[in-house]
Amino acid sequence: MRPFRTRVTQPTAAERVLSILAAAQSMTVVSDGLHTGVHRLHGTGAMGHVHLHTPTETGPLQGDVRIPVRLELTDIAPTPVRDRLRARVTLTGLLAAPYDRESKESTCMEFGQAVLEDSRGRVFVTLDALQATAPDPLAGCEAGMLTHLLDDHSEFVPLLLRLVQAQPDKGMVRALPVALDRYGVTLRLEYPGTYCDARLAFATPVTDPDQVGPRIQALLSAARRASHPNHLPA
Fold first, then answer.
1. 30, 65, 201, 231: which could join 9 in a potential S-S bond, CB 3.0 to 4.6 Å?
2. Does any domain span residue 230?
3. How far is the C-alpha of 113 from the C-alpha of 127, rounded, in Å?
4. Based on the domain organization, do 105 and 164 belong to the same domain?
């Protein structure tokens, strides 16, 4: 008999950290008391600009200088939802030389810790966890896919609401897609003065962006078969 395996329906903290790093368009580097904004990461994400390595156990060699550094990144929803800040990622570590924003080479950073903060709280992610996983395959195209869904197929959103397990309250003002990853899509249900998120999981995780369309169509097919109504016109 095969052992029972829990179905994974959302990314791990390590996956989210790597996805935010991969999709980042900018970040703030804090070192030597200076806050340096790094913009236009040229599609490489933060890890194309800074690479992590394992901390040394012996400490700095004589004459060697290691400078504390902190990388700060924010994950902003690409759609016009209420409270667009989805998460913050903070990486701390040590540099072997003062940080140079103009350097053409990737900066080597000795890993200290990684912290993911979102509406659910704060999670510390180890270097082993980061090295054992990979960014979400949709990280680089999530923004385009979500805005396409909203701008060109907004009629799908009321249909998808039929899949929300707890029927939305009648006071709901609007619902918008707020996140998309390999495991599913998240809708933000907005009410006067508050909001909540509803997670709609794909039947199986996607491994390539080309698989998103069929997964969304599968959700829509299930929604059309759903019996309970929503409170937005379909």
1. 201
2. no
3. 7
4. no
Which residues span the domain enclosing 213?
Answer: 142-225
Exposure string (b/e) for 76-109, b if CB count within 10 Å is 16 or more?
ebbbebeeeebbebbbbbbbeeebeeeeeeebeb
User: Is 103 part of a structural domain of the chain?
Assistant: yes
Assess contact for 234 and 155: CB atoms under 8 A: yes
- Examine the domain organization and report whether 91 and 63 are in the same domain: yes
Same domain, 112 and 176: no
- Report the alpha-carbon distance of residue 135 to residue 137 in Å, rounded: 6
Residue after which a domain boundary falls, among 101, 131, 161: 131
109 and 175 co-located in one domain: no
Q: Encode the chain (234 residues) as per-residue pLDDT tens digits.
A: 455 466 788 999 999 999 999 998 889 999 988 898 887 665 567 777 888 988 875 555 445 678 999 999 999 999 999 999 999 999 999 998 888 888 888 889 999 999 999 999 999 999 999 999 999 999 999 999 999 999 999 999 999 999 998 777 788 999 999 999 999 999 999 999 999 999 999 999 999 999 999 999 999 999 999 865 555 544
In this structure, the chain runs to a length of 234
In contact, 30 and 37? CB cutoff 8 Å: no
